Amino acid sequence: MTTAPRPGPSSRPRPRAAQPTPAARAALADDLTRRLRGTDRPGALDVLRTAADTLLGAVGADVWCAVMLDPATLLDTGGRHEEGFPQAVMPRLFEIEHTEQTGVDNLRALTRRPGCASLLSQSTGGRLDESVYYRDILRPTGLADELRVLLRHGNRSWGLFVLCRAPGSAPFTAADVALADSFSAPATQALRRSLLLSGIDRGDVPDAAGLLAFDDDQGTRLRTATAERWLALIQESHPGTGRPYPLTLTALISRARAAGPGAHVQSRALTRTGHWITLSAWREPAPDAPDAAGMLTYVSLAPSHPGELTAIVLDAYGLTPREREVAQHVLLGRSTADVAGALRIAEYTVQDHLRKVFDKAGVRSRREFTGDLFRRCYLPRLPAPPLTTDGRMRNDAPGGPAGPPRAPGQPGQPGAK
Prior knowledge:
The chain is an alpha+beta fold.
């Protein structure tokens, strides 16, 4: 059954020249910066919504979604789906994306290309009917073409914008693709920064792992209360009708089925409270049917190990491979001379790399850098920590509020989100 796309104010954008001017590209990035400037510590969902609104104002779409990705696995870890695809096509979409990994514009194919934007009609040379993604996803939902914008920094991909137009809308142009490509860098920077600014103000989250089990018809065979609590914290927004679990979970299950029995598939997600959680999925026979015909997909959700978080935070800072090597040595407490000897570079080169690391991390010294990683990765694991992961005092810590008073609605105060 075809679902009619929802038209929006930007469904039929004005015709553009062959290529946007440098001024037009800069204006789009400046617009995003201006919109985010008035938001105090924007979360990932806030950034995705603002970035999508900014891009849609210049490159219209009838259906769109903005997805966060685990840079290590490229699995979905949340996002905005209010104006996205209907629920009915999502299982097949994840099969194509994560299980079959087929199609010219498959997510993993996009990460191997030099650019960040790709238009399906261009990638197929105008032969859309040859694309399984078009046949099984776009055409059944009444859509004519799809523009994908990868949010990438270096070789790490943090998110994806998907913009679709219906047959009655003006086709995407080369200028649309170029403008979307130029928008990737500022949008990626804003998203990565949001992952570093989130703090934890309360401790009312589960500490133990949750467990779920699904059959191959997506029926729930096991569901613990702790798993339900973790799932409720995943940063994902959508209409919710007919969707018992986040799409983040659907993507993980699809990938686990492709991996087969004995393989573990993982992704990491930042929750609404600022905690990182690790989602793990694997396949094994059901207890009442110990054969291949009775396979279940198990999913566990638990707080991420500090070692995992260190890697995530270093990625989010946007360090180069060499800067990351230097940073890892610093975290081990090694001196400039030790780092220079280990990496076979001059000491002044180590200092130059360190200055760049500190600048990207927003700190001024080794002590601040190490303390920042400690707060983010280890402090949330300590019992009843009095500080948030970014150093703010918790209002529910013993002894009451500390530090200067905050206005209602700000982080750490009643009414804060």
